[in-house]
Design goal:
Elements (H helix, E strand, L loop, with lengths): L1 H8 L12 H11 L6 H28 L1
């Protein structure tokens, strides 16, 4: 899948604290944007979801270390 290549190209798979949710994010984008011509929108939505998950996990991990 192209999203897995994107995750690897951006080295998001190397982050130990981050959950890998690319398939999960793509499923939700596909369920909402069903038209074939919206392929680019689905990929953009998925990338945004993956990046948001990584950032969220980064701050969740940081909060655990402070306590």
């Amino acid at each position: 899948m192209c999203m897995n290549k994107w995750v690897i190209a951006n080295k998001l798979d190397k982050l130990k604290f981050a959950r890998q949710k690319s398939s999960y994010c793509y499923f939700f984008a596909s369920a909402s944007l069903t038209s074939p011509e919206l392929c680019d929108a689905r990929l953009s939505w998925t990338k945004n979801g993956v990046f948001t998950t990584v950032v969220d996990d980064f701050f969740d991990t940081g909060d655990l270390k402070r306590n």
